[in-house]
Structures are given as C-alpha cells and as structure tokens.
Amino acid sequence: MFQYDFMQRALIAAVLVGITAPAVGIYLVQRRQALMGDGIGHVALTGVGLGFVFQTSPVWMAVVVCIAGAIVMELVRSRGNQRGDIALAMLFYGGMACGKLLVSMSAQTGNGSLESYLWGSILTVSPEDLTVIAVLAAIVIAVTFGLRRQLFAICQDEEFARVTGIPVRLLNLLLAVMAAVTVTVAMRVVGLLLVSALMVVPVAAAQQLTRSFAATQAAAVGLGVTVAVLGVAGSFEADVPSGPAIVLLAIAAFAAFATIATPLARRRHRGSPESGPAVCDVVLPEQTDPRRTEDPAATRGLAQ
Questions:
Q1: Do the Cβ atoms of 247 and 186 come closer than 8 Å?
Q2: pTM to 2 decimal places
C-alpha cells in the first residue's frame, strides 16, 4: 500500500492526528470536559457548510468557526451560569443544523461530500489538505508540550494557578482554541462525529497503567499514533471506513489495558507496601505566592 501516493498522505495525516488529539485530550480529561471535542465537532459542521457555500477550503472555514465556538464555550463555562448547559446545547445543535442547511444550499450537494467530514475520509486527503493538517498540528504540538506546566496547573487548580501569577483566563482560552484546531485537524481522519473519541480514549487507556502526568501524556500519544496508523492500514486492507476502524481499535486498547491494570496494580502494591497514590511530576513555574511572608515575627504573630 505504500506505493500509492494517497496512502502515503493518509499515513502521514494519521500520525499527525494521533499525536495532536491525545496531546490536547489529556487536558480536557483532567478538567472533566471529555465531551468538549464532540461539541466543537458539531459547531465545525457550520464551517464545513460555509466552505461549500463560498467554494473555499472547508478546513480553513471550520478552523475559524470552531475557534469562535470554542471561545464562546469557554466564556460560558468560566461564568458558571446555571443556564450554561442550555446555552451550550443550543450552540451544539444549532451548529449542526446550520451546517446541514448550508451544505444542502451549496453547489456541492449530496450525502457523499458531507459524510466525508462526518465520518472521515482519510484516503481522499489531498496534498493541500495535508499541508493544512501539518501546519495546524505543529501549532497544537508546540502549545500543548511547550506550555505543559502552565496548562497542567490550570487544569488541576485554577485558584492556585491564579495566585501563583499564571494567566488563567488567557490559558483557558488558548486551550479551548487548541481543542478547536485539533477537531479541524482530525475531521478528515476520524470525522466530526468521532473526533472526541480519539481525544479521550487513548488518554483513558493510558491512565490505566501510568502513575504520572508525563507518563500518561507520552503513553496516550504513543497509543494514539499506533491506533491511527493501524486503523488506516486495516481500513485499506479490509475496504472499510478508516474513522470507525481507528476508534474501535482505541476502544479495544482501552479494554486490554483495563484488563491488565488490576493485577498490575496488585503486584505494585505487594512490591511496595508504602506506595501512595499517583504523583504529579510536572514542576510548576516558580512564582511568588502573595499569601506568604518572609518576616518570621509576622509568622509567629499569625500562629498565635
């Protein structure tokens, strides 16, 4: 299969998506926002529809719409409004309905053109699509790994991160934008309806066996690349859609990891009776905590 140009592009795209999706997904899992990617995928359909209507690149239009939708989602979440869930539901379903309507109004009518974005069509990735995927993936990888300490801090405890001087609001918006970009990167590989699975399942599988954030991130990325490449190769040999094949392989890996996790944990416990829970190996940026004081006398006075 390596003799075909379209398969070479498909495998390169699969590797890029296998890296970026878990790299962003691990932060969403830490924040208990595992389904955020699914919501952004609904909104991205409007961008695809706009691309069809204006006869431009659906990927770039989806990037713009997804970023706007992700920012709105983050603002609704940060305000903690009790009606936020309703607002987000309207955003998700409205984005999907608007996308379908725009596609039906465009010159590129037909279920085939739409299904390639809903379920993925990695074998039809063009050289232009691969260039876009590579550029966006490079941005996501640079942010998620370069700002790993800061992003980990805001995902664990926003109040502590804010006290230590980390720009929480800015990083929250940046993480939402990276999730939006990842959805558009992965939509040609696994489809908008399944993109959230590739962001979440490899992370959940890696958590079964790892005990630190760095190890979980590395294992999730490795598993994401593995299932993406095997899914593409298997779909080529079996003549089945690549998106569902990749997701089913990821779920199978999760089931396998969960099966061996329990006896492995028991063995670790017997080997190290005093071992505690999983530890964080991410060193936070050194900042001055304003609640602390350097005056010993003042400290004794507070103690009294």
A1: no
A2: 0.79
